[in-house]
Amino acid sequence: MIHEEFISELIDTYKPKPDKNVYMGLAYSQRHLILQEIDQYLRVGQNDFPPGLEYIEVLPCHPAEAYAQITRKRSVNNKVTQTYNVATSSVWTVKLMFRWQGEVLDPCYLDLPIIKPGSIMYIWGVPYEIPPVVTDRTFSVTRNGLFLKLPRTKLNFSRHIHHIYCNGKTLSRPVIYSKIYQKTVPGAKVPTIAHYLFAEFGVTEAFKRLANVDVVLGTYRDITTEKYPDSEYFICQSLGIKPAGVRGKGYTASGIMLAIRKEYWTPLVEGMVMALFFAIDCFPQRITLEDIDSTRQWQILLGVLITPNDRGEGKMLAQVDAHMSSLRSYVDTIAHEELAADNVFVNDFWELLAYVIGDMNDRIKRSNADLPSTYGKQLRVLRYISEPITSQIFNFVFEISKLKLNKGELKRSDIIDQIRDKLKQSLIFNLRKGSGVVKSVQTSSTNMWLGITSNCVRQQDATPSKTSNKNAGNSGKIDRANYLHASLAETNSPFKIPKSETSGRSELNIYVKVNPETGVIERKEHLIPIINKAQNDINR
C-alpha cells in the first residue's frame, strides 16, 4: 500500500499538468465575461451617441419576462403571427436600457449564449462548438502585407511600388494602401492610407502634425538647388509617368516639387512623400499648389476613388464626411488598450495610419524569422462569440450618427426605429452563419478533449470570405507562416493532424501554457533548450 501511494505521488510530481481552462474549453471558462463584454462595447459606443441619447445599463431578464418576449405576437409581411421555435437553444435573455432626452425607452432585448462544458452551445437543437482563435496581439503579417483587427473594423494593408525623382535620381519605394471604406461600390478604387491623412489635415499640416517636419512645396521656380542644396535637402518631384489604371488619352505630368531637410527623412516621411506623388500622378490637373492644403479638395478626390458613382460634389462630400467621421472613433478605449499592450502607442486613427506607414516595412522584416512560431500568439474567444452583437452595436452607432448628420434633429421615433432595426434579439444566432469559428459538433469520441476542446482556429480562417468554401482546408498552403517550427511540438498536437489542416496548427496541446489574464501562449522554461536545439536543426 505504501509502495502504491509512493508510486502515485511520484507520478503526480513529474506528470505534466494540463491547462484546465483549455481542457474544459476557453469559451466555457470565460462564459461569465460575455455580459461584461457587451456592456463594455455599449459604453465605448456611447461616446459617439448624438446629444440626448444615453445608454444606462444591461440587465438580466426574469424568466417570465423573457418568455413573454419570445412568444409575443409579431408582424411579418403585414401578417400578425405568434410562433416560437421549440428546438433547444442554450441562450438567456437580457435587456438593454436607453434614455432619450431624459425619458427611459422601452427595453431592447438580446439573447446571450449559455455555454456548456466543452465550449458547446445549442442553436435550434444543433450542438455547436466554439473553439478559440489563435491570433497575433494586434498586427498580423500576411502574404500581401499586414492585417489588423480592431473592435470596430478589420483592415488589410498592402503595398505597391511607385517611382519618383529624388535629387535627380529615380527613387522606387512602396506605397501603402487599404480598403478602409468597406462598402462594395462598382468602379471604386482603393486609396493610399496617406490620402486619408491629407483629407483630414491637408498636406503641410499632415507632415507637421504626424511626422513633426516642415516641408516646402513649390515648382521649379521656387525650389532650386541654390536655395535647397543637395547636400542638405531631398528635392522630390513626379517621374511624369501615368500610373496604371488612370484613364484618359492625354496626360500632362504635374510640376509640383517638394523639398525636405535630409535629417528629417524617416520611413514615415518617405512613405508620405511617395503617397503624395502617387496621388499627384493620379490627379495631375486637380492637385495644384493652390489646393494642395485644402482638406475639401482631398476629400473630393477621396470620394472620386471610393464612391465614383455619386453625382455631384455635394452628395460625394456628404458620403465622405460620414465616412471620415466614423473613422475618428476607430481607435476607441478598447482598441487603445490592445494596441498599447503591443507597444503601439497612438491617440487616434490618424496616428495609427501614420504608424503603419512608418513601421510596416520594418515590422514585416522583423516578423519573418518568427512568423511560423506559435509563441506569443493569443487565444481569443470572447470577441468572436460576441461579434454578431458588437458589430451591430457599432453599426447602430454609425447609422444613428449618420442620421443626425443628415437630418440635423432626431426624434424619439428615429432612435426607436434604429434600435429595433440594428439590435435584434436573435443576433447571437448569426454565429452559425458564415462564421469560420463556430461549427457543428462532429465527433464520435466520448473524450471531450480529443473530440472538441483540442480544436482551435487560425486567424485567417476565423472570418472566411465569400470564396472560403472553395478554398476550405487550404490554410496549410505554401506560406511562410505555415513553415515547420519547433514550437508546434510544445503548443500544438503534431501527432493529431487532420487532413483538412496539414500544417499542424488547428489542434492545441492539452499541456500548453497560456497566460490566464491575457490569453497569450507562453514558453515553458524547462523546454527552452530542447525546443531551441530542435529549431536550430530545422533551420539548417
What distinguishing features does this structure have?
540 residues, 2 domains, 7-stranded antiparallel beta sheet, 19% strand
Give a quick rundown of the structure:
The protein is an alpha+beta fold and 540 residues long.
Describe what you observe in this structure.
The chain is built from 18 helices and 21 strands. It is of the alpha+beta class and 540 residues long. The protein has two domains: 20-135 and 376-478; 139-370, no CATH class. Strands 10, 11, 12, 13, 14, 15 and 16 form a seven-stranded antiparallel beta sheet that branches. Strand 2 (74-76) and strand 3 (79-81) form a beta hairpin. Helix 4 (34-45) packs parallel to helix 13 (382-407), helix 6 crosses helix 7 (203-211) and helix 8 (267-282) packs across helix 12. It is flat, with a radius of gyration of 27 Å.
CA distance, first residue to last residue: 52 Å
- Oligomer state equals single chain
Given as residue ranges, the uncertain stretches (5+ residues, pLDDT < 50) are 465-476
Estimated structural class = alpha+beta
Helical residues, percent: 25-40%
Supply Rg.
27 Å
Number of domains: 2
* Average of per-residue pLDDT values: 89
Anisotropy-based shape: flat
Total of DSSP H or I helical runs spanning 4+ residues: 18
Beta-strand percent range: 15-25%
Q: What's the total count of β strands?
A: 21
Major β-sheet profile: 7 strands, antiparallel
